[in-house]
Amino acid sequence: MKVTFITGAANGLGKEFAVLYGKDGNNLLLVDIDDVALNDVKEELSKMYPNIVIDTCIADLAKEEELKKVYKYTIDKGYFVNNVVNAAGFGDRCDFKDMDIDKQLKMTYVDCNAVLYFTKVFVDEMLKQNEGHIINVASIAAFMPAPYMCTYHACKSYVLLLGEAISYEIRKTNVKLLTLCPGPFLSKFVELAHNDYTFKKIKPVTAAMVAEFGYKKSLKGKSLAIVGFKNRLTIFATRFAPRKFVTKTSAKTMKKGD
Predict the structure, then answer these.
(1) 3 and 26 Cβ atoms separated by less than 8 Å
(2) What CA–CA distance (Å, rounded) separates 194 from 214?
(3) Contact assessment for residue 152 and residue 193, using Cβ atoms and an 8 Å cutoff
(4) Does the residue 157 lie in any domain?
């Protein structure tokens, strides 16, 4: 059975992607660490789309054994994962000297390793079937360093470079990988990342808008999608600015009075 695999599906962007894929008749396998919220999403989507199969898998993507557990679950169930959305991730705005190193390492595992792992294990079967779409959620953060939020920006740069390289390698097949780069959007990210200052300076869009934009670009087979004209213009402008200026400008969006 074909299924669409979505991480971070209990809320925010992952949930919005689940709504879109479900609406188009795709069976869903939803993954998240929050079992209560994930079951609520399953119940909600089951009422909206009674004719599709909706399965869930509870997992902590910061642990290698949990990643393998999720993949084994898909094998045991006989699923062919023909769509993947790697939407799980989190950030943390904090001076580097004050950062909790364990939290930073966990961030690299969720934001980088989980994306790498699920992309690799599912793209193999997609290539055999010559069918599939992958959406890896990066950020406009991927294009610039950010003092006070350095690990998160570095992680998103990893996702961007990884995706661009893989997209090139598989370009002659019917398997497509999109790296989606939104700016700030409404979700639990702000609270968890302690990044309310940035969101006061930059007006966020809705998670539904980001998901719809990414979904359409993925169906068109695009390899990179930056959400919003202003964000695209900003990223373009950074190509011509000195790196020190880009870093300083980025820092001012992260911390008051910097």
Answers:
(1) yes
(2) 26
(3) yes
(4) yes
**Would you say residue 258 lies in a domain?**
no
Q: Does 67 fall in a domain?
A: yes
Cα 227 vs. chain centroid, distance in angstroms?
A: 13
Q: Are strands 175-181 and 54-58 parallel, antiparallel or unpaired?
A: unpaired
Could you tell me the sign of the dihedral formed by the alpha carbons of 8, 14, 15, 19, in that order?
negative
pTM: 0.90
Q: What is the CATH number of the domain that holds 202?
A: 3.40.50.720
* Spatial separation of the C-alpha atoms in residues 149 and 28, rounded to whole Å: 33
- Only one residue has tokens 């930059």, namely 202
Q: Which residue has the higher pLDDT, 237 or 156?
A: 156
Q: Which of these, 48, 53, 59, lies nearest to 88 by C-alpha position?
A: 59
At CB < 8 A and 24+ separation, what contacts does 167-171 make?
167/223, 167/224, 168/223, 170/123, 170/127, 171/223
- Domain hosting 131: range is 2-252
In a domain, 257, yes or no: no
State phi, psi for 62 to the nearest 5 degrees.
-85, 0
In angstroms, the CA 53 to CA 61 distance is 23
Q: Distance of alpha carbon 88 from its chain centroid, rounded?
A: 5
How many domains does one find in the chain? 1
Per-residue pLDDT reduced to its tens digit, 68-96: 999 999 999 999 999 999 999 998 888 88
